[in-house]
Amino acid sequence: RPLLSVMFAQPGSKASELLGQTAYTQCALFALEVSMARLWQSWGLEPDFLMGHSIGELSAACVGGVFSLEDAAALVGARGRLMQGCRDDGGMLSIEASEQEVRALLADGTVGLDVAGINGPRQTVVSGDHTAIDVAAQHFEGLGRKVRRLAVSHAFHSEHMDAMLEAFGQVAQGCTYHPAQIPIVS
C-alpha cells in the first residue's frame, strides 16, 4: 500500500491502522523527518549539527549526506519490514530513573531487559519481554517513580530484534556511504 495513503488515511479506517505496524511506522517517520528538514533548508535554515535516535539517526544521516535519499529509503524500508517480522511478544517501558539506576536493576539478573534509550538524566527506556517489563515497572513504582508502558508492537532496541540483523546488514552493505556534510551527533 502506498505510504501516503496510510499516513493520511481517514482516522479509524483499516488503512489508518496500518500506521501502527512498524513496516509503515518506520517509513512514515523517516519521510516526515527528512521532508521537514528539507523544508526548513529550503527556507534557508541550515543546522550546525544533526542528531537522532533510532529511525531519527537514519534520517539525520540522510539529511547530513551520508546516504542518498534512495539508499536511505531502501535501508529504512528494509528495516521496517525486517523489524515487523521479528518476534512480537515484548514491549517497552519508560522509567523515571537514571541509566545507572536501571542498569543496577538489570545487573542482578532478575530482569531480562535491555536499555533501549536514555532520554535524559532521569529518563530511561527499557525493552524486552512483557514479564520483565512488569518486574521493572513494579520495582520503580515501588520507589515512587513514574513508569509508562510505550504503545509499541515490538521490543525495539532489544535482543528481540537480533533475528533481523544479518538481513539488515546485507541491505546496508548495498548502500553507498559518504562523509557527513553536516556533523551528526549519534
Provide a short characterization of the protein structure.
By secondary structure, the protein is an alpha+beta fold. The protein is built from eight helices and six strands.
Describe this structure in words.
This protein has 186 residues and is α+β, with helices and mostly antiparallel strands. 46% of the residues lie in helices and 15% in strands. The strands form 2 sheets. A 4-stranded antiparallel β-sheet has the order 3-4-2-5, with helices on one face. Strands 1-6 form a two-stranded parallel sheet. Strand 3 and strand 4 form a beta hairpin. Helix 3 packs parallel to helix 4, helix 3 runs antiparallel to helix 5 and helix 5 packs antiparallel against helix 8. The two termini are 32 Å apart. The relative contact order is 0.17. The model has no long low-confidence stretch (mean pLDDT 95).
Major sheet details: 4 strands, antiparallel
Q: Strands of the largest sheet, in order across it? A: 3-4-2-5
Strand content: 15-25%
Order of helices and strands: HHHEHHEHEEHEHE
Task: Name the assembly state.
Answer: single chain
Count of DSSP strands? 6
- Main structural class: alpha+beta
Radius of gyration: 18 Å
Q: Compute the separation of the termini in Å.
A: 32 Å
